[in-house]
Automatic annotation (TrEMBL):
<keyword id="KW-0100">Branched-chain amino acid biosynthesis</keyword>
<dbReference type="GO" id="GO:0009097">
    <property type="term" value="P:isoleucine biosynthetic process"/>
</dbReference>
<comment type="pathway">
    <text>Amino-acid biosynthesis; L-valine biosynthesis; L-valine from pyruvate: step 4/4.</text>
</comment>
<comment type="pathway">
    <text>Amino-acid biosynthesis; L-leucine biosynthesis; L-leucine from 3-methyl-2-oxobutanoate: step 4/4.</text>
</comment>
<feature type="modified residue" description="N6-(pyridoxal phosphate)lysine">
    <location>
        <position position="195"/>
    </location>
</feature>
<dbReference type="InterPro" id="IPR001544">
    <property type="entry name" value="Aminotrans_IV"/>
</dbReference>
<dbReference type="InterPro" id="IPR005786">
    <property type="entry name" value="B_amino_transII"/>
</dbReference>
<comment type="function">
    <text>Acts on leucine, isoleucine and valine.</text>
</comment>
<comment type="similarity">
    <text>Belongs to the class-IV pyridoxal-phosphate-dependent aminotransferase family.</text>
</comment>
<dbReference type="Pfam" id="PF01063">
    <property type="entry name" value="Aminotran_4"/>
</dbReference>
<dbReference type="InterPro" id="IPR033939">
    <property type="entry name" value="BCAT_family"/>
</dbReference>
<protein>
    <recommendedName>
        <fullName>branched-chain-amino-acid transaminase</fullName>
        <ecNumber>2.6.1.42</ecNumber>
    </recommendedName>
</protein>
<keyword id="KW-0032">Aminotransferase</keyword>
<dbReference type="InterPro" id="IPR043132">
    <property type="entry name" value="BCAT-like_C"/>
</dbReference>
<keyword id="KW-0663">Pyridoxal phosphate</keyword>
<keyword id="KW-0808">Transferase</keyword>
<dbReference type="GO" id="GO:0004084">
    <property type="term" value="F:branched-chain-amino-acid transaminase activity"/>
</dbReference>
Amino acid sequence: MKTSLAIPVHKTASSRLAQTDFSNLVFGKTISDHMFVADYKNGEWTDLRIEPYAPLQLNPSNAALHYGQSIFEGMKAYKNEEGEILIFRADANWKRMNESAERMCMPSLPEEVFMEGMLQLLDLDRDWVPTAKGASLYIRPFMFATDDYIGVKPSDTYKFIIFTCPVGNYYSKPVSVKVETKFTRATEGGTGAAKTAGNYAASLYPALQAQKAGYDQLLWTDGKSHSNIEESGTMNVMFKINGTLITAPLHTGTILKGITRNSVVQLANDWNQPIEERFLSVSELKEALENGTLEEAFGTGTAATIAHIAKIHIDGKDYVLPEKPADAFSHKVLAALDGIKYGSQKDPHNWIIKL
Ligand SMILES: *Cc1c(COP(=O)(O)O)cnc(C)c1O
């Protein structure tokens, strides 16, 4: 992809690349040398620039710190055998970021600010994209309010930043989950569909209770009746029952519109794998676990792509899922997505942006 926007670059005088141990990467702890920054004031995005990754200066009265006008995105870039950088569906992340922005009364970002900022940053830091099998560069765009004002109102000024983190082979162990029927992640009319900071702050306490009880994550249910499965902490979830995949629909506005979810739905349709976007009730899930018709359960999200669920806790009872056969849908879809992301397979839906 050709880039055209002129973005001034201030390069770091002391790259951290040489002292970075790429064989021991902890997700989200290692940050690449540079960041892309843009400021919003007087109704427009200005002062686009790339500079060394460094602390920000904020006033204690910064509005985002008090009232949470803050949104983020997350996607990944991969290196193919030729050393080219392949970015997976970043255009979808740009669109979703603007949907989050609208819900949180924040300004939308023009496509070229998001895309060109990202591409030019990745081009400069291309040596930070790992080459080890299964490794990738996690890209974190985010936007937050910068008004120095502690009244509750939408800020007039904002900052948009993109930084990146090399991440290792994210082999996710099968996870155990607890169906949550007391606490609520999202409710109709709320902010569940927005990738906004407060949603994650509010989920920490219930998730910690589940972890103390020995589970990795929660399976959230709807906020009204707690009878339908919605999604997990940072993943959408899918169940294969009697040969049919089932995943929660998006129309209630309580589910984060995962790009991995959307990609899995698309591939299932390509392969004529029956898939239903509808709510699965907790009792239906329980029944399928009890009568052996639940074949697979997995989370979908950028970090792990596919996370197998091995144990589900419902109403005081643990259900252990059967071992999955080698030809399980979740194995097949993970292999297909990896093939597209690393450029070893055709990309029939034009999901890859090449740099
Ligand atoms: C980011 C996120 C997802 C997964 O979205 P992807 O685009 O697939 O990474 C699912 N649920 C929640 C709550 C999320 O924050």
